[in-house]
Design goal:
TIM Barrel; alpha/beta; 19% strand; eight-stranded parallel beta barrel; four-stranded antiparallel β-sheet; 14 helices; globular
Length: 365
């Protein structure tokens, strides 16, 4: 019978060991004659596997998250739920299952009034400022947001390998769906003015609250839709937004792997290069771990193991730059019998993510 030391030195056996047996141990590196530490899944410095949930989540679903080993969630709130009192009660419910809220999303972040610079925006911005203060008081570190007021998200649904998933076809959108949504068209520079106005109002509040605002790219990454320009369809958009933030530690990326993969070469940098540029500077604070079938002009979403992007490599690259934010299986395709919480789909995705994270931990340390 092999003892523990012999098992660690035999790489073939090592790959079949349960990760629970690996966490916190030193692995021999025969080629270098050195040892390296394999990080435990729940180490604070590791990627935080998480699930996107509604504020109305039921206790049985929280229990399910605990059953599949999750300790973090991202919560989508309604305007009525986005109060300190409600979030505090929600925190307490999660805490009973040893789960914490890593990030929260307030619906005002997608406001047309803010995006288009309407006079009603100031009241909504004040509401968002109060939300950021509440996050800070409750120790919730991240607020996710997007900025695309004229967006069309999907052109239909498809069946892939028997499961249903969202599709976007640019030619279908242009020919059959697109219309001027508002009374006039809005240019990119107007949108930049409105984004800057919003950030100048809310970023100082986020800084004081010690909350990081995590910016989602435009999905799909099409430069103009329904007469409204979109800003975050290329790496240059993120670079300009970072300059507007003027070095603030409260500005970062909610890096949606799927959205970036949808754009392909048109994004200026691929997924791995984005992780290297922004992740190495600790500007990626949360990740949507999602795959797609291909790039624009037509794509559909897939399970993480079923698309064109190498998601195992994505996880390795995240580990290489020391990313320790949340990673959620965004836009989970629907499996037979799934309800709103999509337990089967969530279990499938989290199981895959845990497997590639474990292999990344073995590779990176």
């Amino acid at each position: 019978m092999h003892d523990r030391k012999e098992l660690y030195c035999d790489r073939r056996l090592l790959l079949h060991l349960p990760v629970a047996a690996l966490g916190g141990h030193w692995l021999a590196n025969p080629a270098a004659g050195q040892k390296k530490k394999v990080i435990d899944e729940y180490d604070p410095g590791n990627v935080k596997l998480a699930r996107r949930v509604p504020g109305s989540i039921q206790d049985k679903d929280i229990h399910f998250l605990r059953q599949i080993g999750l300790r973090w969630v991202r919560v989508d709130l309604t305007r009525r739920q986005a109060t300190r009192a409600f979030m505090q009660r929600l925190q307490a419910r999660f805490a009973k299952h040893k789960i914490r809220i890593f990030s929260a999303v307030h619906p005002v972040q997608g406001s047309v009034n803010i995006g288009l610079g309407r006079k009603e925006r100031d009241e909504e911005i004040r509401e968002y400022q109060e939300f950021l203060r509440s996050l800070g008081q409750l120790g919730i570190p991240v607020a996710g947001y997007a900025f695309h007021p004229g967006n069309t998200y999907s052109t239909g649904r498809v069946q892939r390998r028997g499961y249903a998933a969202r599709e976007f076809d640019l030619s279908t959108f242009r020919a059959k769906i697109e219309r001027k949504r508002f009374d006039r068209e809005y240019s990119a520079e107007e949108l930049w003015e409105n984004y800057t106005y919003f950030m100048k109002k809310v970023l100082p509040v986020a800084e004081k609250a010690k909350v990081t605002m995590a910016l989602h790219p435009d999905d799909p990454p099409v430069a103009k839709m329904n007469g409204v320009a979109k800003l975050f369809t290329h790496v240059d958009g993120y670079r300009r937004a970072e300059k507007i933030a003027a070095g603030s530690k409260s500005w970062g990326l909610l890096f949606c792997i799927g959205t970036w993969a949808e754009g392909g070469e048109r994004m200026g940098k691929n997924v791995y290069q984005m992780i290297e540029e922004f992740g190495a500077r600790k500007k990626i604070v949360a990740v949507h771990f999602r795959n797609v079938s291909g790039t624009l002009p037509r794509f559909h979403e897939t399970f993480p193991d079923d698309g064109y992007l190498d998601m195992a490599r994505v996880m390795r690259e995240l580990r290489k730059v020391g990313f320790n934010g949340s990673a959620i299986p965004d836009h989970i395709p629907r499996l037979v019998g799934d309800d709103r919480m999509q337990r089967a789909g969530a279990g499938y995705c989290i199981g895959y993510m845990r497997a590639v994270l474990r292999q990344a931990n073995l590779t990176v340390g």
